[in-house]
Amino acid sequence: MLRLGWGLALFCYAxxxxxxxxxxxxxxxxxxxxxxxxxxxxxxxxxxPHFPGYPGFIALSKLLYFAGLTAKxxxxxxxxxxxxxxxxxxxxxxxxxxxSPTGTLLAFAxxxxxxxxxxxxxxxxxxxxxxxxFLAALASIGRGHHGFASAFAGMALACRPSFFIPIGxxxxxxxxxxxxxxxxxxxxxxxxxxxxxGAVVLLEGESYFLEALRFTEGxxxxxxxxxFEQATKRDTWLDAATRExxxxxxxxxxxxTAAYALFKKPQLTPLTIATLSALLWTAFAQNPExxxxxxxxxxxxxxxxxxxxxxxxxxxxYISVLLQLNLWSQLELxxxxxxxxxxxxxxxxxxxxxxxxTNRGVYYLxxxxxxxxxxxxxxxxxxxxxxxxxxxxxxxxxxxxxDIKWCENNxxxxxxxxxxxxxxxxxxx
Amino acid sequence: xxxxFYALLISLFVAGQAHAYSYAAAGKxxxxxxxxxxxxxxxxGNFEAAKAAANEIxxxxxxxxxxxxxxxxxxxxxxxxxxxxxxxSAAINRAxxxxxxxxxxxxAENLNDYQTSKVLVVKSKRFFDSMAGxxxxxxxxxxxxxxxxxxxxxxxxxxxxxxxxxxDLAAYNAAVEATLKALAN
Lengths: 429, 185
What we know:
The complex is a heterodimer of chains A (429) and B (185).
Chain A: H1 2-21, H2 30-40, H3 55-66, H4 71-96, H5 101-112, H6 117-121, H7 127-143, H8 146-159, H9 164-177, H10 182-204, H11 207-221, H12 237-243, H13 245-264, H14 270-285, H15 295-306, H16 311-332, H17 340-349, E1 355-358, H18 362-368, E2 373-376, H19 383-387, E3 394-398, E4 410-413, E5 423-427
Parallel strand pairs in A: 1-2, 1-3
Antiparallel strand pairs in A: 3-5, 4-5
Helix pairs in contact in A: 1-5, 2-3, 2-4, 3-4, 3-8, 4-5, 4-7, 4-15, 5-15, 5-16, 7-8, 8-9, 8-10, 9-14, 12-13, 13-15, 13-16, 14-15
Chain B: H1 2-11, H2 30-43, H3 47-56, H4 58-67, H5 72-81, H6 85-109, H7 114-131, H8 137-153, H9 169-183
Helix pairs in contact in B: 2-3, 2-6, 5-6, 6-7, 6-9, 7-8, 8-9
Keywords (chain B): Signal
Signal peptide (chain B): 1-20
Keywords (chain A): Membrane, Transmembrane, Transmembrane helix
């Protein structure tokens, strides 16, 4: 039975891998554009990429770049292959943290079928690489290899510094529990972080610290769209849940099971703390507009539940895998295509050079559409009020159909995966 | 403490609507902050608020008027008095161009100090990015390219000497001139 399960899981893994690999490298957001620029020339002050610089991720994409790939291919395939390592790494992490053979299989299948795994795979962002190193760290902790665990945790932080709360807390718990490993853990983590972030400080000078202050403040008060932001207009996790209901139903199921399991049998392990802190950190400090942020807590939830060796959690994982597999029919049957942003650029390139007001991909659009005047809709609320008065042709690119419509002309570019935004172009008639 | 927690919890589910973001939008640059505040207020027809935002940068405007653009303060006063939003937008752009000029010229004076000159050029680029929406495509591309040349001209000390490039004052001045020409009307 177990063999049959692994056979089916590996078949699904091959299907997903082939489907993802058939996608052409295509930039979906400004953040991805910044990573591509950063691969060519690194400069945090110029947003190549933006703060904190993601030095681990850039170092890996630069390696691929020097190996002969273009910068876009390097970032795209690094992200994609990082995401494809997550199911096997999850199985490994579950196994080393006490999962039974069935639990190991469920961790593999549970992560493989996660609704936002394809989104992260094609995002050209550092999430998947950061999670992959974090899982390797958790697996190494499970095996008692603290040197490797700390080095992997350092790499995870160098790729995805925003994971510092779950990574830091899980390392801290292990540090408290294993007195004999404290020295190794401290030295290895510090050395890895010093290597990467020391290089960044060396390149950027003291202005890196000023940018750190500016960027952190901006994340929590201006653009980060977090719970700490005082602005009234912002997407919430409830909006996110209504956008992808089935994905959030399975997530809720996993959260409820985890809460029940924790209540029934409280335990203090690095994996438990990592899962709980990732859930809370994502809920409060991450942007609900970008559903890729959900991947870390869901991956950790699946691994943790799979490692519990309880029959009830096993059934819940079976159900969630089956529910999640239902979503695949929406994906794999679709033909592969460029990102909605790239397709909208393809459309706009053929239109007369004119004014474009956008709240998506401002920097990338300015780079790709050199003849268009491109206004950032963020800067001026109601910029369209100025724009709409002009007689020249004008376009508006938006991620929401709820925005005020200029007229009935509306061209839509559908998402490639669950959680990716459809983009809409409207003209001023 | 519990109140803060509940407030945060509620804030997770308060309905809202998405808007765009730009990493250059956060503070620490009074002119960029004031630009947003002034234009937002003017578009809402609230010129008192626009005036208050302009007062926040009165020191900067006085300095830029004295040294870089003699009619700048007057342009702001006229636009605010006549409640003319396009004129206010044009005055803000003039202030930004004066600020870009100030920083790029300071870059030439600090060409032997890589970190300082780099910050001056990169910050100029942030001001340019903020006003880039006001520029037609050709002008935007020309200024963008010229700023890239300015950044190349400041050289690079490399890491422990590896990849070292000496600064080139002539190339830098040419790039600054090209930037200001592209931004000029």
